[in-house]
Design goal:
The complex is a heterotrimer of chains A (192), B (212) and C (222). Chain B is built from 8 helices and 2 strands. In chain B, helix 1 runs parallel beside helix 7, helix 3 runs antiparallel to helix 7 and helix 7 crosses helix 8. Chain C has 222 residues and is α+β, with helices and mostly antiparallel strands. In chain C, strand 4 and strand 5 form a beta hairpin.
Chain lengths: 192, 212, 222
């Protein structure tokens, strides 16, 4: 159990997918300053990650031992299919949200965070439960990072930023400081 | 028969990827590897070389098959082609450079979702002749490698006090460890982007003065 | 001007299938070409570490656990078993140096993977090497670079348990001097060693103990 808690906390805050592993940067830098859009995009990511984790475990256990060279292709196919499915569901349930998310929804497919999750999980040899906990931690961490940067961007747009740094460069400096802040979570679980 | 308007020389196509349309500093693509594996110059160079292999291979193949692949399924086909090259480079690196492979880890496989690669197929390789697609791929990947080398070089010098593993400063140099940690990636890229913005502003001002 | 014919769905599926097929074939080829080398690289890296943590070893034998017992694992072409394995190191004269046991656990930044050598006859750890870690460079990563820290593991008693103490305070053979400025990373290593050694010690019997046992059993047979 302590093992699972460590996996969750590590993926969520100590080694945050965005701020420590640089995954999921496209939505991170591109998403609007609207907090609620960022939050819902995060939720979509959590959902896709969880399904991907289950599918990856299934593939790793039953299919890929016979053809390990197909790992990358099968993972991508699974992710693309899941995202298609999520797109259809959101379009049906909430057309407004679908419009608000716009291009970012299909972009979840090329979001390195999802593929990264599947690959990291495979490399660490996580089982079914560990993989799920890892996916949840990573997804929640991603959402956390998205929400924080969206909130900061709202503040930032109103403040006075030197012209040279305005735009992308400023976002990187903010992200760097956030990354440093999150490093403070290290050592949360230590000892035996 | 009219000559093609504005024929671009091969050299032009190559050089644009290096500076004017540099994938990392101008188009802001491929951020993930640009920060994740640039904690040293060597890692940046290896990632750049691996990306070059994938981009050149994919562009060649996509350009060769551009009249054969139907529009409707072009993206899945491109992705399969790219994934094949990425898996290949992953295995080859694991066999020939196991230490570098371990350092780069899953980020080699993540080349497949580097927007730069798919972007070049969609924007250029599928619409141009094979020689031109090759030149474009070489230029873009050279620019990408250049960017990674710059970031990796800065981070290694400041964060480890070395370059390519060779110690640069004396014993008393206290390395700025944060540079080889994740925040260093964000800060280095931010600083370099600012530098590029400054260059751009300077050249724009100079052009304005010359126009007057 | 005739408009381009919209390709039928058969053409679409066929293109995708063909691309997938050719891709698969190419990948099989690359895989078969590179796999032997990759496996050798992995085994080499591990064996190098085993030689370091079991000083004096010239021959390595691989063992896996079946039914709570150590079973010898025949390693074809230096392949490593997929299940949890330990490695026995033998000297030139055939005597046992000890067992090399891989272990891992949470460190300061992320999981620390290490391998340590355990001598069952003296019940001490004779060597430790960190295989993988993401500790802070210049601070936590001293568990890799600090030679003073490694001296702790040359004859570390595991009974009753390994204890981490402040730097310079080591008095008992079961104590480990932590690195100043890297207390948590040092304690993490101690924690991993404690848990693993106590888990494996009952299984890793020394040859003398085994021969005592078999001597004990033999006379009862008619």
């Amino acid at each position: 159990m302590g093992d699972l808690i460590f996996i969750f906390a590590s993926a969520c805050v100590i080694n945050n997918f965005t701020l420590a592993y640089f995954l999921g940067l496209c939505p991170f830098f591109g998403v609007t300053g609207r907090l609620d859009t960022a939050f819902r995009l995060g939720l979509a990511n959590i959902f896709v990650m969880t399904i991907t984790s289950i599918a990856a475990w299934f593939l790793n256990t039953f299919v890929l031992p016979h053809a390990p060279y197909l790992r990358l292709i099968t993972f991508i196919v699974v992710i693309a299919s899941t995202v298609q499915f999520v797109e259809m569901v959101i379009k049906k349930l909430s057309p407004a949200l679908f419009k608000a998310l716009g291009i970012f929804l299909p972009l979840i497919t090329t979001n390195c965070a999802i593929l990264g999750l599947a690959l990291f999980s495979t490399n660490r040899g996580y089982g079914f439960v560990q993989g799920m906990v890892y996916a949840l931690g990573a997804g929640i961490g991603l959402t956390l990072a998205l929400v924080i940067i969206a909130g900061l961007r709202e503040e930032n747009d109103l403040g006075s930023v030197p012209k040279l740094v305005r735009g992308v460069a400023m976002s990187f400096f903010i992200a760097g400081i956030l990354s440093m802040a999150f490093m403070g979570f290290a050592g949360l679980f230590h000892g035996s | 028969m009219s000559p093609p308007a504005n024929p671009k020389s091969s050299w032009d196509e190559f050089v644009k990827g290096l500076w004017r349309e540099n994938p990392v500093f101008i188009a802001v693509l491929g951020l993930c590897p640009a920060m994740a594996v640039t904690n040293s110059l060597k890692n940046g160079l290896v990632m750049g070389a691996a990306t070059m292999f994938v981009l050149v291979g994919s562009s060649l193949l996509v350009s060769l098959l551009r009249k054969v692949i139907p529009r409707a399924v072009r993206v899945p086909c491109y992705i399969i082609i790219i994934a094949t090259f990425v898996t290949t480079v992953d295995f080859v690196l694991a066999a020939l450079m196991p230490v570098a492979h371990k350092q780069l880890g899953a980020f080699i496989s993540l080349i497949v979702v580097n927007c730069l690669i798919l972007g070049r197929q969609e924007a250029f390789a599928s619409k141009n002749t094979t020689p031109m697609a090759l030149v474009d791929a070489l230029g873009m990947s050279a620019g990408f490698t250049l960017a990674l080398a710059m970031i990796g070089g800065v981070r290694e010098i400041l964060g480890s006090g070395s370059l390519l593993g060779l110690r640069l400063f004396g014993e008393s140099f206290e390395p700025w460890a944060i540079m080889i940690l994740p925040p260093g990636g964000f800060l280095s890229l931010g600083a370099l982007l600012t530098l590029f913005a400054w260059f751009k502003e300077r050249s724009e001002k100079r052009r304005e003065r010359e126009a007057v | 001007m005739a408009a381009a014919r919209e390709p039928g769905s058969f053409r679409l599926v066929a293109t995708l299938a063909l691309t997938g097929l050719i891709s698969g074939l190419l990948l099989v080829g690359v895989y078969l070409l590179t796999q032997p080398r990759i496996l050798r690289n992995q085994a080499e890296a591990l064996y190098a570490a085993i030689f370091r943590v079991l000083p004096g070893t010239v021959e390595i034998k691989t063992y896996v656990v079946r039914d709570n017992e150590l079973v010898y694992f025949e390693a074809p072409e230096g392949r490593l078993p997929t299940e949890q394995a330990v490695f026995a190191g033998h000297r030139e004269d055939g005597s046992l140096v000890g067992y090399a046991v891989p272990a891992d656990g949470p460190g300061f930044m992320d999981t620390i993977k290490l391998i340590y050598g355990y001598d069952p006859s003296r019940r001490v750890i004779v060597g430790m090497q960190v295989l993988d870690s993401r500790e802070t460079p210049g601070l936590g990563d001293k568990i890799i670079t600090d030679p003073g820290f490694h001296q702790n593991f040359e004859a570390l008693a595991i009974e009753p348990e390994i204890v981490a103490v402040k730097k310079g305070k080591k008095e008992q053979p079961n104590e480990v001097d932590c690195i100043t400025g890297a207390t948590i990373s040092s304690e993490a290593v101690v924690g991993i060693l404690n848990k693993s050694s106590h888990q494996w010690a009952p299984l890793l019997v020394s040859p003398e103990e085994t021969s005592e046992v078999s001597q004990h059993v033999a006379p009862s047979q008619p």
